[in-house]
Design goal:
transmembrane helix; 5 helices; mainly alpha; transmembrane; membrane; elongated
C-alpha cells in the first residue's frame, strides 16, 4: 500500500498547491493538509512498527492497528483545530464530515489491507 499512499499524498499536495495558487485568501489550501497524515503515517509505519512491536508485548498486527489509529486521532485533532477558523457553521460541519470521513475510511482500508 506504499504506492497507493504515495499517490494519495501527491494528489493532496497538488490540490493544496492549486488552491493556494488560485489567489483566494480563504485558507482552504492549508485546510486540506491534515489529510496527508494518514497515508504518510502508513508509509512511516513500515519503518516504525517493527521496532515498536519488539518493544511492547503485542504482536505486529496489533501494533499496526494501534499506529494507524494514533495517526487517525492526530489527523482528527488537527481537523478540529483548523475548523475553528471556519466562520460559517454549515461550512465547518461539511469540512469536518468530508475530511474526517475520508480519513476514517482510508484508515479502515489501510488496516484491513495491512493486517489481513
Amino acid at each position: 500500500m506504499v504506492f497507493e499512499c504515495s499517490a494519495i499524498i501527491l494528489i493532496i499536495l497538488i490540490l493544496s498547491v492549486l488552491i493556494l495558487r488560485s489567489g483566494s485568501r480563504s485558507g482552504w489550501g492549508v485546510a486540506v493538509l491534515p489529510l496527508l497524515l494518514v497515508p504518510a503515517g502508513h508509509i512511516a509505519g513500515n519503518w516504525l512498527v517493527p521496532p515498536f512491536s519488539r518493544l511492547i508485548p503485542a504482536d505486529t498486527p496489533a501494533t499496526w492497528i494501534g499506529f494507524e489509529l494514533i495517526t487517525l486521532a492526530v489527523t482528527c485533532l488537527l481537523l478540529g483545530l483548523i475548523s475553528y477558523k471556519i466562520k460559517r457553521r454549515s461550512a465547518k460541519l461539511a469540512y469536518l464530515v468530508v475530511c474526517g470521513g475520508f480519513s476514517v475510511i482510508l484508515t479502515c482500508v489501510l488496516i484491513v489491507r495491512t493486517v489481513l
